[in-house]
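Our preliminary data section would be incomplete without showing what the modeling component actually yields. Below, a chain of 567 amino acids is followed by its predicted structure, encoded as tokens that our downstream tools consume directly.
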Amino acid sequence: MTEPPGEGTAGVPLFDLTSQPWIDVLTDDGRQVQLSLRQVFAQAGTVRRIVGDLPTQEFALIRLLLAITHDALDGPDDLEGWADLWADPQCFIAVGAYLDAHRESFNLLDPVAPFLQTAGLRTAKDEVFSLNRIVADVPNGEPFFTARMPTVERLTFAEAARWVVHAHAYDTSGIKSGAVGDDRVKGGKVYPLGTGWAGGLGGVFAEGDSLRETLLLNLIAADTDTLEFTAGDRPAWRREPCGPSGGERTPIGVRDVYTWQSRRLRLHYDQDGVTGVVLGYGDPLASRNMHRREPMTAWRRSQAQEKKLRQSPIYLPREHDPVRSAWRGVASLVADRAEAGQGAEAAAYLRPGVLEWIARLVTEGELPRGFLIRARVIGASYGTQQSVIDDLVDDHLAMPVLLLHRQERTYARQAIGAAEDADQAVRVLGDLATDLSRAAGSEGEGARAAARDLGFAALENPYRAWLAGLADAGDPFEQRTVWQQSVHELVGRLGDRLIAQAGQAAWQGRTIPAKSGALWLNAGLADRWFRGRLAKALGRSNGSEQSPADGSPPPSDPAMTDPKVPA
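Predicted structure:
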């Protein structure tokens, strides 16, 4: 249970985040407990992971802990410094002294500089709003899916602290109440300036077997050439307190970007907890070409932006698609940037900076080739002009770090190829569903989508298991062949099921247009086409995919499974 606020010097109300428990964690013996910042670092070796109220809260808290770690250690400066930390079970001992030195900055209730808030923030009418404004409801506006229906009337101080961190990272866009002193106010309102900074990212971080490993794996050394580090980099609590208005500036390092103040907010509270909030826009931050400052997302080139701004290259964050599992996007995690470009052309995609960092660790021998990490994939999907959160992405992909090795690219290429095998095979399954529907005289789009969902669901766990064991399985080419055989068998059985369930109308068939004028399509011919297509997709072609009526290949769906992303 969270302790009530105390009093600091001179009667200042105190909820000290360095000593008061407020971060929920899962320990290595399976217990869920609440720890203070000091306890989190002291017990990081026995803590399995952070447990947020939402996955996005976990991501935001990991970034907060990383900012503290970078600042407390003032580094690491280079690979050797990181290796010393990795080898030292007491690597976070300096964090305790740091928290002591900056204890006043971590008081959630400080009247002058409350943690990640703006003291005295108020609207012209002195309105205080419901805590629903900072407590994310997913799906938004659906009270039947929340334990706090229909409104959030009160939060403990520990809960409020977590949601403050989350609001800066993932708050929705939309029209917000204007604060006194904010020069962006028009008619008492501030018009949409976008979501919190992390809300526009396809969040990725490397997860180890303990919180200690997780923090160290994502603790990027300052001599990393793919990121920009500046001597003046510091987190939000070591900057001047924010006023009501937002500032136009660019973050100068990871400590800055991890604690970016995209909102201005102020909690209202009594002795028993937090009762309301004032929330407005803070510092806007454009995502264009931020890939050298933000390491926890993949990036994609935007041809539309390049054409519009007449500059190249322009990279934007590669956001997650809620309907696409992480294993299907393995290329965005393991593809080397040199392979993602064409000759001198800039790469079409960049993998996350944290994975570029781990690629360096394994390439230079600091991590063993068989070391297993989980690439955690977390993000928010917004709807209605980004004013609501429609869905969350929370997934992971366990993989050996060998897949990130910069010189030994064979394993990574086979992993990417194996995911493409699955995509091709599932496309063929969708074609079968379409052909069966056409044979029965109905439209095939619904059947195609259902068949694809069935195929990807059947292949997901086998692919994950295959990938996790790839580094220990010997020849990667041989393992790719083993995978293709598994896909052929699994998808073949799914095809058998679709054909068996096709119904009498599909078996009887009907005439459809073809190059030769007309073609009698029934379940038997659809079956034959399916076997030929599947064999060809998996490198086992026997030529039977051609139509016996006119000698031309049967129609195939041109749509691929890559997620649609905005320009």
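The chain is about 35% helix and 15% strand. Residues 143-147, 542-567 have pLDDT under 50 and may be disordered. Preliminary results of this kind motivate Aim 1 of the renewal.
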